[in-house]
Design brief:
single chain, alpha/beta, 40% helix, six-stranded mixed sheet, Diaminopimelate Epimerase, Chain A, domain 1, 3 domains, binds manganese (II) ion, 13 helices, inorganic pyrophosphatase (n-terminal core)
């Protein structure tokens, strides 16, 4: 209950306005009446008066005359200028968001055709959930859209995401990409913005719609709708805003998928998370299916990964915080990141690398818990003269080709030593 102290016209008008906003209020003309009101949200006064005591609810002083000083015992001062300014800021932000969506909607309304949506290679939950949201948008405007990707959905978490959501995304070869581009349907890039960068599109491909949150130059485009905004931690955030602003109903499957997309891109809601993400999440969370979220979070490990993990546990060697191990022959190189993620958590280990063999190639995956480590550079320095290696400061990967006849346990030892030597240089 908001209590308004005063008897004039103003008190009555404020009470009417609060009612319009769905807030209950009561007008009193004597402070003593406060005692009889059970739950007070705030006390609104319009005179600079001595209240005599400190209340445990906020006292808001509405100052018609814009006097400069806040009276004693008052928690919030409202005057014409502060109100207009704060209302303006809130409205501008809301308007900007709505404006973005209406631009996209206007563009889509003009289409009467089909669209071809592309994801980057190795699409992750953020990209896939964004595609699901885009499909909803297309449905609204009776546009057919096909979703394509190249590369692989290799990581078990991503595989599980596709299986669980039942999303219809189509793997295509480089030749098929060219055929689709020749069809001349509008191209949509989601979660990436430039052709030929981490995707199999030709450099000459021109998108009509781009929605992405990675810092990047704008692609060449002829009109359409280009939205590249790093204020969002995930493309799923930008897509959630569009669905909300366009008043499109978000199913619990879609809400859970978008939330999971934001979660993965922000490393569990802790890195690069922004106010925009939090706002989108506050709308998505009430719609989510918590059981589905549980499923998405815990991809089952393949039996072959567990076996390789067993081998890697037995073969591990630790010296001065550096763990090296050989997981033997692995069925896919995607086993290695899962194995090294686990091994690097061993007590007193700060950096780990795991090798695994597929035919005549030794694949490797490395992790470091040291904050000032550049593991990508270390992997590059250790292996680039005999293979390919590189990556991020705390996660890196690579591979070297070997000759069948020279492969023995010494070969792994040599690779381990190269790695350890580079890590120690860093220390
Ligand atoms: Mn993303």
């Amino acid at each position: 209950m908001i209590v308004i102290l005063g008897s004039g016209k103003l008190a009555g008008r404020v009470a009417d306005e609060l009612e319009r906003w769905g807030k209950a209020s009561i007008v009193i003309d004597d402070l003593d009446e406060l005692d009889s009101i059970e739950f007070v949200d705030a006390l609104l006064i319009s005179d600079d008066m001595d209240l005599g005591e400190k209340y445990d609810f906020p006292v808001v002083y509405y100052d018609v005359f814009n006097s400069k000083e806040t009276p004693e015992d008052v928690d919030v001062l409202l005057n014409n200028t502060t109100m207009i300014a704060s209302f303006l800021i809130a409205e501008i932000n809301k308007y900007r968001e709505i404006r973005r969506t209406s631009k996209l909607v206007q563009y889509m309304k003009r289409l009467d055709d089909e669209m071809s949506v592309f994801l980057h290679d190795n699409p992750d939950p953020d990209a896939i959930a964004s595609a699901m949201a885009f499909q909803e948008l297309c449905d609204r405007f009776d546009i057919d859209c096909n979703i394509y990707y190249s590369g692989e959905i290799g990581h078990p978490e991503n595989e599980l995401f596709v299986e669980t959501t039942g999303v219809n995304i189509e793997h295509i070869s480089d030749d098929e990409i060219l055929t689709i581009i020749e069809e001349d349907k509008p191209l949509v890039f989601l979660d990436f913005s430039l052709p030929a960068v981490n995707n199999s599109l030709p450099r000459t491909a021109v998108p009509e719609v781009v929605i992405d949150h990675h810092p990047s130059d704008s692609p060449r485009s002829e009109g359409g709708y280009i939205q590249i905004e790093t204020r969002a931690g995930a493309t799923s955030t930008l897509m959630s805003e569009h669905l909300i602003n366009a008043d499109i109903e978000i199913s619990s499957l879609l809400a859970s998928s978008l939330l999971h997309g934001i979660k993965v891109d922000t490393h569990g809601f802790i890195k690069n998370i922004s106010k925009s993400d939090l706002r989108a999440m506050s709308k998505l969370i009430p719609l989510c299916d918590s059981e589905l979220l549980d499923v998405l979070e815990r991809p089952p490990m393949n039996p072959s990964t567990i076996s390789s993990l067993g081998t890697a546990i037995i073969n591990r060697e630790i010296s001065k915080g550096i763990l090296t191990s050989y997981a033997g022959e692995v069925s896919t190189k995607d086993d290695l990141p899962q194995i090294v993620d686990m091994l690097v958590t061993e007590r007193d280990v700060h950096t780990a690398v795991v090798f695994g063999r597929i035919e005549n190639t030794i694949h490797m995956s490395a992790r470091s818990m040291l904050t000032d480590m550049d593991l990508g550079a270390i992997m590059y320095n250790a292996f680039s003269d005999i293979g390919e290696a590189g990556g991020h400061p705390h996660a890196a990967a690579g591979y070297v080709h070997i000759k069948e006849e020279v492969f023995d346990s010494k070969a792994i030892k040599k690779l381990s030593n190269r790695f350890k030597k580079e890590v120690k240089k860093h220390e």
